[in-house]
Design brief:
about 140 residues, alpha/beta, 3 helices, about 25% helix
Amino acid sequence: LESNVAVIALDQFPGMTAAARRTAEAVMAMVAHADAVIIDLRGNPGGSDGMNQFISSHFLPEAPVVITAREYREGDGQRRTDYPNDPARGGGRLSQVPLFVLVDAATGSAAENMSFSLQGLGRAVIVGETTTGAAHSSQFH
């Protein structure tokens, strides 16, 4: 866009296949010199975890940080799984540029997780409507 603002529109989060990763790397290379970035997650119902953390890592410092975590209750115990950033992807110019994430009522699951995490880490301003409320993984018992 004008003023060197990049827009990345993501309509879903595919699994982290080699092809998906190469595509994401190409997109991130294209926006690497933007002065601000808008990630458009409107209408994104989510998808598989992994790609959201991969893309988020480009906008975070190089230092390790937990992007999101899940806690599982199993029997009498509890287990926590952390999903960290990829330090090799962060710490560059994109970790300093203004970042905005667009959401709407159709933003769900992994897309909500990404917007919530970037906001919680103080890295993005979220703009839009209330999302679907489906960011929390669940398991039937």
